[in-house]
Amino acid sequence: MAHRPPILLIDAPSLYFRAYFGVPESAARATDGSPVNAVRGFLDMLTTLVRTRRPDRMVCALDHDWRPDWRVALLPSYKAHRVAAEGGEEVPDTLGPQVPVILDVLAAIGITAVGATGYEADDVLGTLSVTQPAPAEVVSGDRDLFQLVDDARGVRLLYVGRGVAKLEDCDDAAVRARYGVPADRYADFAALRGDPSDGLPGVPGVGEKTAARLVDRYGGVAGILAALDDPGSGFAPGLRARLDAARDYLAVAPTVVRVALDVPLSELPTALPQAPADPDRLLELAERWNLAGSCRRLVDALATRD
Fold it and tell me: 99, 19, 13, 97: which is closest to 61 by C-alpha?
């Protein structure tokens, strides 16, 4: 049997935020002057991925709940610094209106986009990575998704921290080389190290090297907490004191960091079309938003990927 190309699982918010900040507003405007830089950049990223990865399946995951209540209940600081004054996520004023345009274009082309109430895009990606037929390539600039890498299932992370054109194709060995821990221990490592961008304080005085060493020695946070109760476990006094003071945080942080793998999702169409699902609608959107070039490039890439 011929090897099937991996399904591409796209972290849509990660990519369109990067597109927004990577393409100047002045370089991409609709005929009415509205900025469409995030839309154009996002579509061009998809074009690059289709041309270079040559997938036959794709799903774009969405943030239907960027700060789920169940994570906040465990750790109130989770993403708290990113809450806007009026509530909701703090998003640039000119980015928010572009997201519906992205979704309209995806629908007209025939690329599935899906989110789930009470879950982040990360959780949708995690669930798809274990429920869709393997292999899979998860595309994101979010470090938390290193935990989804699974050599046995054929799940890799295409990390776009330096852009889609310079993506890093990561298997478990790449995660170990980067952080000193296997992918399935990344959540424990991240909980110890912390992540200011997500409001995770970490354990004071524990950086990446110490976190990796602790995970390697004790297997994860649960093993560390158990070892703290053993006077002969060998912690240096200062480190023991810091870990002991962080017990309450460590009891919940790995659950907050860990990507959900059981999001309730309906059966999804994942096959990539070779021609737009609704060409008239796509033409209308391309003209209205001055996206003819980006739409044409993506449609051409889809038509010629075999």
Answer: 13
263-to-117, 149, 154 alpha-carbon distances in Å: 9, 18, 20
Tokens in use for 120?
A: 């982040």
Q: Report helix, strand or coil for 152.
A: coil
The CATH homologous superfamily for domain 183-257 is: 5' to 3' exonuclease, C-terminal subdomain (1.10.150.20)
State the average pLDDT over residues 167-183: 97
Please state the length of the chain: 306
**In the prediction, which pLDDT does 88 show?**
86
Write down the pLDDT at residue 4: 83
Q: Where are the beta strands (DSSP E) in the chain?
A: 7-11, 58-61, 112-114, 136-140, 155-159, 168-170
* Per-domain residue ranges of the chain: 7-182+260-303, 183-257
On whether the 7-182+260-303 domain is CATH 3.40.50.1010, my answer is: yes
- Do residues 166 and 38 touch, judged by C-beta distance below 8 A? no
Give yes or no for a contact between 25 and 37, defined as CB atoms under 8 angstroms apart.
Answer: yes
- Alpha helices by DSSP H, listed for 5-97, are 12-22, 37-53, 69-74
**Spatial distance between the Cα atoms of 126 and 119, rounded to a whole number of angstroms:** 11
Find the helix or strand (DSSP H, E) in which 281 lies: helix 279-288
267-285 pLDDT tens trace: 999 999 999 999 999 999 9
Percent of the chain with pLDDT over 70: 99
